[in-house]
Design a protein that fits this description.
alpha+beta; 3-stranded antiparallel beta sheet; globular
């Protein structure tokens, strides 16, 4: 057994999304885990919540299941990492996703301003123009829809929403990858040290943008955070750093990129679905999107911590117990979604999926993400109605602690 694989027995006993077989198919573990009460993962140091009803119990009761540990803190890294962060003056605060009420409400209302219906509508021309531009650049009758389409498309949109200059996309993406590395307790410590060194430059870059928006506000999320929105005041600079580099840029990029390619893959793998998309894209694309979000949630889940003793799904949990909520498992729970592995565009309860979370911390960017997915797919199938998977293509998924997404999606036409 190599360092990048685990046995079938290990797959049934514990969960590591960075290695085989979980990297390729986490449902190997999910199906087994749903047959038993929440259990401790020795590797992750948290109880894994995999059943739909248990997940809903947790997210619907934020008093008992606190979000303070929803995402890891970069300063929770080993000392050799945190010393580099401190030397670079890298700030860290809580984020919206890590907060409980009453602190959550004011910060969330300011953050929400970046993703209103008006902002979504205002972004549609940018989305359509960028999608067409990217298809125009395809050459040779073949493309990788991850690298050549989903990645640059979502980068353009999220940069415009936040207020990042388009010409800085490459280095912002590199810094964003560093944030993900620092969040990942399974990544090598040397990689985290290297990422921590680069965070100092990212901090200086963000502070310059914050200072600019303080003097010259615009219609972007940075300005909302600096000046306030929805009747609430602006947030401290340190908080703006944390929410922009994390909840906005990481979550706003990775999840939407992966949702676009997951939906395209579902369509291309199922001729009946493809026929419906080509015949009636306005109705079929949103249905295919929701079914793809259910089957392959682009975000695996978030952490919670118990605030009191509680029984969950047959497991007694003391106060202070960490939980990892695996939404991707709940989305294929047979008790909520019959024949869960199938692709069914007419599934009556598909919108009950947990791909965007639920309750107090439901993803504020969900409407924007759905619009991005819709525009990307409408453009692709309008421009390339004969697109198909490249001969011999087999899905390979990224090694990621938080996200479920394709490394590539090779197509021809």
């Amino acid at each position: 057994m190599t360092a990048t694989t685990s046995s079938t027995e290990d797959a049934a006993a514990d969960f590591n999304p960075m290695v085989s077989p979980h990297r390729e198919d986490p449902h190997l573990f999910y199906r087994t885990a749903r047959s038993r009460p929440p259990a401790l993962s020795p590797m992750l140091g948290a109880y894994l919540v995999t059943r739909y009803d248990d997940l809903v119990t947790v997210v619907d009761d934020p008093r008992t299941f606190s979000s303070e540990a929803a995402l890891p803190f970069i300063y929770a890294n080993p000392p050799e990492v945190t010393s580099v962060l401190e030397a670079g003056g890298v700030p860290e605060t809580t984020m919206v996703v890590n907060e409980d009420e009453p602190e959550h409400r004011a910060f969330r209302r300011v953050f929400d301003a970046g993703f209103t219906g008006a902002r979504v509508r205002a972004m549609l021309p940018t989305m359509r123009a960028r999608a067409d531009e990217l298809v125009d650049a395809f050459a040779g009758g073949a493309a990788d829809l991850v690298a050549d389409y989903a990645v640059p498309f979502v980068q353009t949109v999220i940069s415009a929403i936040i207020g990042f200059p388009a010409e800085d996309t490459a280095r912002i993406q590199a810094w964003t990858d560093d944030v993900t590395t620092l969040w990942n307790p399974l990544s090598p410590v040397d990689d985290r040290v290297a990422a921590a060194h680069r965070m100092a430059e990212y901090t200086r870059y963000l502070q310059a943008l914050i200072d600019d928006r303080r003097a010259r506000p615009r219609e972007d999320l940075l300005s909302d955070l600096v000046h306030g929105a929805n009747g609430f005041p602006g947030v401290p600079d340190e908080y703006t750093h944390n929410i922009v580099r994390g909840a906005a840029r990481v979550a706003g990029f990775d999840t939407t990129r992966d949702a676009i390619t997951a939906t395209v893959l579902v369509i291309l793998q199922h001729p009946d679905v493809r026929d419906r998309v080509l015949a009636d894209p306005a109705r079929a694309i949103p249905r295919a999107t929701e079914e793809a979000l259910r089957r392959d949630a682009p975000h695996r889940g978030l952490f919670r911590i118990t605030t009191r003793e509680v029984d969950l799904g047959g497991t007694h949990l003391p106060a202070g117990t960490p939980l990892l909520l695996l939404f991707g498992s709940g989305n294929r729970d047979e008790t909520r979604f019959p024949d869960p592995d199938a692709v069914d565009l007419d599934r009556p309860n598909v919108r009950e999926h947990l791909a965007f979370g639920r309750g107090l911390h439901v993803c504020p960017g969900a409407p924007m993400a759905r619009a991005e997915i819709r525009v990307a797919l409408e453009t692709l199938f309008r421009r390339l109605p004969n697109v198909r998977l490249a001969d011999g293509f087999e899905p390979i998924y990224i090694a990621s602690y938080f996200f479920r997404g394709l490394e590539s999606l090779h197509v021809t036409w």
